[in-house]
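Here is the promised in-class demo. Please do not try to memorize the tokens; focus on the logic of going from shape to residues.
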């Protein structure tokens, strides 16, 4: 949300104060980022917990223990996310708020040339996404999915695309938040805490049925 709002901030400030569309746009940024956080299993820590919960529930129901892959999650989440975005748009801009502006100032765009660093960044990003999608197939060779995340770090800093100043300017509070969530989900998974909770909930619901 912080990144999206920083991009849209100039456009939002240029809208008239008290504008209904201005309020709707701010809420739209928050809700769309919330929905976007569901698109991949690594987008937010709770997705990792949800993935493990779904695997446990399927295992209890079908006596199998499948692992929800990166590609499988995206395949299900993207259509759902698209539907939620359309519903959110309808609620915000058709029901709750009125579009009281005739023209929305465009987002300032700086044209840049596609030089070697930018091309390398796009290629490396695409490679990592593909590797995450096929991770269950190559897990025996590369190890946990976190190992794949090290590849772009080594590439960008090793090649000089990113420098020490870029490293120092990172929002380490956000990095630690994501890392802490990932560590928490890993601890829940390895300790079988999630498995115990799911069984307890299942016993309670079965008793009420």
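The designed amino acids, position by position:
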């Amino acid at each position: 949300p912080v990144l999206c709002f920083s991009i849209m901030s100039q456009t939002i400030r240029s809208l008239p104060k008290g504008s209904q569309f201005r309020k709707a746009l701010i809420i739209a940024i928050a809700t769309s980022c919330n929905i976007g956080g569901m698109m991949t299993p690594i987008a937010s820590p709770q997705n990792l917990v949800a993935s493990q919960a779904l695997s446990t529930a399927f295992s209890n129901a079908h006596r199998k223990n499948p692992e929800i892959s990166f590609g499988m999650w995206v395949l299900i989440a993207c259509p759902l996310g698209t539907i939620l975005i359309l519903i959110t748009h309808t609620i915000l801009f058709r029901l709750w708020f009125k579009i009281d502006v005739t023209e929305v100032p465009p987002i300032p765009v700086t044209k840049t040339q596609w030089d070697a660093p930018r091309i390398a960044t796009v290629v490396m990003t695409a490679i990592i996404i593909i590797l995450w999608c096929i991770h269950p197939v190559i897990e025996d060779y590369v190890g946990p999915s976190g190992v794949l995340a090290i590849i772009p770090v080594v590439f960008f800093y090793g090649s000089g695309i990113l420098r020490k100043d870029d490293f120092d300017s990172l929002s380490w509070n956000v990095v630690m938040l994501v890392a802490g969530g990932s560590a928490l989900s890993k601890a829940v998974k390895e300790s079988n805490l999630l498995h115990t909770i799911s069984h307890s909930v299942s016993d309670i619901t079965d008793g009420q049925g």
